[in-house]
Specification:
The chain is mainly beta. It is built from no helices and eleven strands. The strands form two sheets. Strands 3, 4, 6, 7, 10 and 11 form a six-stranded mixed beta sheet that branches. Strands 1, 2, 5, 8 and 9 form a five-stranded antiparallel beta sheet that branches.
Length: 174
């Protein structure tokens, strides 16, 4: 896994929970930064869609802005096109869902197979446009993402010896 930039906030407000596919990290305390990538991760398949929900504690009658970044190409940065997601805002909540959540996120068909990261940032008073921002009022959490090899289509060979035979193939599962 490449080295990612540092991002840290303050502790009076921030993220109180994240749910994304099999990640369910709810009821978390407020910290400046937490790296959950080794303990909280999920497997995703290219071209599949998953819902991301972020819960927030605004620390009073204030508004926080949430953003997610996913490093789809595994290059160690969140600045490539299609890697940033606006999760909306939350106002005057202790464990409220950000306004654009759940947000449906589709894994790009060309996402790099292997381990990568997702960063969630909650920032007081203004949008979080910089995944490497430090010293702001809010919180940052990193999570592990594992992009799985896309399944290949099964091959079918007609060995029945009969021409013009119809073969029906069905599949299920992920």
């Amino acid at each position: 896994i490449p080295c990612y930039c540092t991002s840290t906030g303050g502790t009076s407000d921030g993220i109180s929970g994240v749910a994304f596919n099999t990640i369910s990290n709810l009821g978390t305390g407020l910290n400046t930064y937490t790296d959950y990538s080794a303990t909280k991760n999920t497997q995703l398949s290219p071209s599949s869609t998953y819902n991301l929900t972020v819960n927030v504690n605004t620390g009073g009658n204030f508004t926080n802005y949430q953003t997610a970044w996913i490093d789809w190409n595994g290059n160690g940065s969140y600045t490539d096109a299609g890697e940033s997601y606006n999760l909306g805002t939350a106002t005057n909540v202790t464990n409220g869902i950000s306004s654009s959540c759940p947000l449906s996120i589709t894994v790009p068909a060309g996402a790099t197979v292997g381990e990568t990261r997702m960063r969630i940032q909650s920032k007081y008073s203004s949008a979080t446009g910089n995944s490497c921002l430090t010293g702001f009022d809010g919180e940052v959490e990193d999570y592990g993402i594992i992009i799985c090899t896309p399944p290949s289509a099964p091959s079918v060979t007609n060995n029945s010896g009969c021409k013009n035979t119809t073969i029906i193939v069905s599949a299920s599962g992920a």
